[in-house]
Structure formats: C-alpha cells, structure tokens
Design goal:
Elements: H1 2-45
Amino acid sequence: MEVTGLKARQEAVFDRKRLTTGTVVAVARLIKKRRKVMNMVLHVSGNPV
C-alpha cells in the first residue's frame, strides 16, 4: 500500500515537472519567435539591431 502511494506521488511530481518544462519551452519559443519578428521589423525600418 505504501509503495503504490509513493509511486503515485513520484508520478505526480514527474507530471508537474514535465508541465513546467513544457511551459518554459513554450515561452522560450514564443520569445525567440517574437525576437525574430522584432529583428525583422527593425531591419525593415532601417534601425540598427
């Protein structure tokens, strides 16, 4: 009984870590994409990047 509880707790922690990692990756991708767009906009408008 104790073992299953421990396993469930580990799985819950793993799910939370995976969710956090996924969120961080998504945010990083969003920032990278936005930075690329900003660089293009600045480049087109003639401002030095």
